[in-house]
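Hi V.,

You were right to ask for the full record rather than a summary. Here it is.
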Amino acid sequence: MNRRPKTYSSLLVVAGVACLALFLCAWFAPDALARVGGGQSYGGGRSGGGSGEGAGFILWLLFRLLLLTFEYPAIGIPLDIVVVIIIIYIVRSDKGKKAPASVCSVDAPHDVTQDFNQLRKFDPNFSEITFTDFCYALYARAHDARGRRTLDELSPYIGEASRNALLQRNPPDLRAVVGVIIGSMKVSNVRGLASPVVNITVDFETNYTEIVGGNGNKPGEMTYYVREQWVMERNRDVLSPPPAQATALHCPRCGAALMKDTTGACAFCGARIESGEFQWFVKSITLLGKEARGPLLTSNVAEVGTNYPSVVQPSFESVRAYFERNNPTFTWGEFEARVNLIFNELQIAWSSLEWERARPHETDSIFQMHQYWIEAYKRQGLRNALDNFRITRMQPVKIKEDAFYNSITMRIWAEGHDYTVDGSGKIVSGSNKKLRRWSEYWTFIRNRTAPPSHARADLNCPNCGAPLKVNVTGICEYCHGKVTSGEFDWVLSKIEQDESYRG
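Predicted structure:
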């Protein structure tokens, strides 16, 4: 007669433990994350900080407790209660904990800021912004030339071994390489600052399409996700060219068009360039991965670092005061209004898959990265929507000036509904009910030669004042000024996530 109450009690405990399991899995499970600012990964979704492993351990632990409760209820039930209390305490403590600014993942990328500062002692013209644009231009040009089998034209910038490494990827019937889009470019290492030659290691994550076949038949196409590592070298004391010259890919010595004579030397100045004597030179190219697929756009990832303290530039207040003295027309109110305009325009363009709307507000490199994701969503019949979004807070954390650009990094806190829908409108990840909060570091640049003016917070050309309408290259269709270069007003140059931002 005592069995029924015990069985009934055990069933209650089982039900309670099952509910707890569902609750804890929901608590630990990462949310879907996309957004214009990040969260996607070419490899199928950024890690959520171990959330999946944590949920698996919880389920295993609860299963063991369940067996113990059935076999020895006098021990199992009190133990259930104790474990539940401990788990809830740990979860709540972890959720509310603020990590110090120095927290970083074990595999965090090398912080190259100090290396670049050291390089500027030898090359005052060195600009990280210009270097990034140069790498984007050279990568795209190299794969285009690989498809046309004209890589030798780039010998002043790419060594023979590196050219051969690219050509070895060509299928026999390759006709062209098109749609080259760089989704990520990271400088992972800088070496040789104490020697005459500096090496910079650059990691690329890209997408391109190879067109093969033909001979009367319809050519076939295959799109690849590719990871590559390029090692670039240059004489340390060389003075970097200005931005327009750096990305033009002319002869590094004389500036003429790339054209070689029968000996392989420049047809104009006669220089045969096989090293970084005048400009950055690709020493080696390593293929880290190549997969015939696009990115996975419905992966679950978690927000990491929203509650972290801001990473603020050392002596920021002094740097800020110096910047304000040298730029008397600059006001933070007008700048923040422009930041808010750009933020809103990018969210709208992203959600509607009409990325041309964002073109006037971004540099070429970040526009290309975002364009990749827009096209990826379109190909998979998906759309990442952001509803009811708004900036809740902004904080300037860094101001930099190099030979050509001023840059300001703002930490932006925002909220909104973040979800992905398929072609029928069905939500496949995220939520249009649950408000999501996040923060990111956005860097804006402006050319130092730009005329003194106030930051615009309207949709008019910052140069001529006409309605803002630019072509695919970022040039105003009325005054023909390149709006996206920062030549006239602040434009977005970079977005970095909380957990990866190093200052």
